[in-house]
Amino acid sequence: xxxxxxxxxxxxxxxxxxxxxxxxxxxxxxxxxxxxxxxxxxxxxxxxxxxxxxxxxxxxxxxxxxxxxxxxxxxxxxxxxxxxxxxxxxxxxxxxxxxxxxxxxxxxxxxxxxxxxxxxxxxxxxxxxxxxxxxxxxxxxxxx
Length: 144
Description:
Elements: H1 7-22, E1 30-31, H2 34-43, E2 47-51, E3 55-56, E4 69-70, E5 73-77, H3 79-87, H4 95-114, H5 123-129, E6 136-137
Helix pairs in contact: 2-3, 3-4
């Protein structure tokens, strides 16, 4: 599928195709990137992240992490390691699907840290900063 009008139109066409394929309605989307993951992790000063399976960093962005092994379990990660982990797909038995699971776990780790008692007083500023981490969305600020 080729997007001919704009990136937004391309995302809308992908959403439409997924809905048609799965029969599952998708009402909203948020597009982010690895830099956004890193910025969110910085905002909450690192996260605890569940890694549901063994992985090996085969194509890292940071040379020192080449072939680093991360076993299943909960790990403390800084911005760089979150980006490395959510980027990995080549060593995963389920490939891209496994990468999506890791992205979900990173988002859960960010949310848990943001809602921790130590961050409650910072929550309003954290919520206000969310648009800085979003590349594209069809949600209004009232929904976000």
